[in-house]
Amino acid sequence: MANLADLANDLVEERMERALATRDALKAEMVCHSFLYCETCDAPIPLARRIALEGCTQCVSCQNYDELRRAHNA
């Protein structure tokens, strides 16, 4: 016979799995919005870039600079 702790653990595990499955199902519906202005230099981000790269937060110049800096530090 399962004890109370085992039953509670099973219940928590079941609810966690259900919550994660729900979150994963909703992930596809989430839309990532691009910034209108670069978070680094406040320059406007062109519409074409915002459409091409959903969720972009930087202008091309700042993004290039960050990528070069990261590559140099790696």
From TrEMBL:
Superkingdom in the source lineage: Bacteria
One function term, GO molecular function aspect: zinc ion binding
Domain Zinc finger DksA/TraR C4-type, chain residue ranges per copy: 34-67
Pfam families: zf-dskA_traR (PF01258)
Zinc finger feature spans (dksA C4-type): 38-62
Keywords: Metal-binding, Zinc, Zinc-finger
Alphabetical list of InterPro entries matching this protein: Znf_C4_TraR, Znf_DskA_TraR
A biological process from GO: positive regulation of secondary metabolite biosynthetic process
Record's protein name: TraR/DksA family transcriptional regulator
Taxonomic classification: Bacteria, Pseudomonadati, Pseudomonadota, Gammaproteobacteria, Pseudomonadales
